């Protein structure tokens, strides 16, 4: 895997991935930015949420669950020091589907966060990572 980060101006940077995708990163005005892109630490949260969501959806689909939607709400707290690292990260999954068993969602979330998600595994030695979920039942429409 490779990535390149190019300085644009001020505290704005353009991140480009080896797979050909780009994203703008910028800081808030009180850090010299213009708020024209996401913060680098927000990208870490997106990475954990995306990695874990990928696992949860794959596990539920392999279990033949009638999954319609999966949302991961990721929240975190940072310490009040330099560097201002995360002290904890919480993932809240909202799984919508038809007759999706709570036990299947619980298993998928636990497996992802505690075993399969590479981003969570990488951070878990220094950050407390917690998780929970809710299941929203909807009628199946074909």
Automatic annotation (TrEMBL):
InterPro entries: KH_dom-like_a/b, OsmC/Ohr_fam, OsmC/Ohrsf. Pfam families: OsmC. This is OsmC family protein. Transmembrane segments: none annotated.
